[in-house]
Amino acid sequence: MNNKIVHNVQIVQPDAILPASTVWIRNGIIEKIENNHTPLSPLPEEEYELIDGNGQWLIPGMIDVHIHGANGFDMMDGSEASIQEVSRACAATGCTSFLATSVSSTMDELLAMVRSVKRVVGFEVGAKIAGLHLEGPYLNPKRKGMQNEKYLRHPHLGEMKQIFEEADGFIKMVTIAPELPGGMELLSYLKEMEVIIAVAHSDATYEEAKLAFDAGASHVTHCFNGMRPIHHRDPGLVAAAFEADHVSIQAIVDGVHLHPAIVRLMHRIKGPENMVLITDALQAMGLGDGSYLFGGHQVTVTNGVAQLADGTLASSVVTMNEALRFTTETGISMLDAIQMASTTPARILGMDHMTGTIKTGLDADLVLINEHFQVEWTMIKGNVI
Fold first, then answer.
1. What is the value of pTM for the model shown?
2. What are the beta bridge partners of residue 100?
3. Hey, is 363 helix, strand or coil?
4. Is residue 353 one of the residues assigned to a domain?
């Protein structure tokens, strides 16, 4: 049965929380939203399944535009099992859609990852794959972060065209360092392909970044991490992004990658409509402390912090529901935090006509969370996962 009534919930909307509310769902689509305090009359079982939300928060399904792995599985291994495990883990932590994200690798490894994603699309066991996010390999070694330098190279238009041909339209976002030789030419091609052009692992100056944003780049991957830092005489990429109204930014809010004051600064300048919460999670998400192989590196997770041997941060283990909690703990409202986790990424990906808010006519991609931001259940197009 795909007709459901979710009642006794607090519905989180972009501008308000609707207490004691009810959502009617027919064939996986939100049919009606009611806000009342009266109990529902009994309904014939064959028409609707009744779900009691026990007064907890009902939020739109979250969308993670940047995730690499989970539960011990790395999506770069080219297997369908790894893609499915990330889909399952995303759903368990409140995500209804995600971008399968690569790391810098050999061409063969990247193409294998692309093929495995294509095979899983439409058959996901949990969260839906909204597309591919290519993070590299056209990144600047000077700001490589955990990216493996032996795989980094200058932009190669022919190579990128081959990747796009293999991907069959599934690429939605590409992260590059536009200051590299051939970077602006690649940027021009990506604009033609109508994908989101993101900038990171970049040593771009303020002037170089402005050129990239003027030419079509519109997003910053894990803002502040893997890029030239702000300096009062050398403002760099971040200041250029802050000044460009059309540029949105990602934030890893895990209590490690960004100081709470920086999270508040990003929010104050960009607003929830241009700030996106991400996990950037590696396969340690869901498993915790231990040793892992990621991007050709040995990564050690200690007390929830993933690092290379030299202390470089190596992605994160945060989940999207935890990112919500961490964001509210910085002093940002829950309404804004949920907008950054659901509504804004849906708009950026061009999915806001289907998902991202709780609204009549949209897919019933919904998550019930409790006061501790723990996920009670996740619903994808009317089906509880």
1. 0.96
2. 67, 132
3. strand
4. no
Same domain, 84 and 30: no
Give the catalytic positions in this structure.
280
User: CA 88, 92, 97: angle at the middle one, nearest 5?
Assistant: 65
Same domain, 250 and 139: yes
Q: Are 119 and 93 in contact (CB under 8 A)?
A: no
Do 252 and 170 reside in the same domain of the chain?
yes
Tell me if 256 sits within 8 A of 262, measured CB to CB: no
> Coil, strand, or helix at residue 271?
coil
Distance between CA 330 and CA 252 in Å, rounded? 13
CA-CA distance, 376 to 227, in Å (whole number)?
A: 37
Residue 180 has pLDDT above 70, yes or no: yes
* Cis amide bond preceding 137, omega within 30: yes
Q: Structural domain tally of the chain?
A: 2
Distance CA 103, CA 138 (A): 10
Same domain? 182 vs 275: yes
Q: Count Cβ neighbours within 10 Å for each residue of 244-276 and write b for 16 or more, e otherwise.
A: beebbbbbbbbbbbbeeebbeebbeebebebbb
CATH number for the domain harbouring residue 312: 3.20.20.140
- 80 and 16 co-located in one domain: no
| pLDDT of res. 298 | 87
CB neighbours of 259 closer than 8 A, spacing ≥ 6? Answer: none
233's CB contacts (< 8 A; 6+ apart) are: none
Which structural domain range is residue 257 located in? 61-348
Do 284 and 367 reside in the same domain of the chain? no
pLDDT tens digits, residue range 268-278? 999 999 999 99
pLDDT (0 to 100) of residue 342: 98
Place of tokens 């009810």: 22
Contact status, residue 349 vs residue 130, Cβ threshold 8 Å: yes
Domain holding 48: CATH number? 2.30.40.10
List, as one string, the DSSP characters of 25-80. EETTEEEEEEE-SSPPPP--TTT-EEEE-TT-EEEEPEEEEEE-EETTEEGGG--H
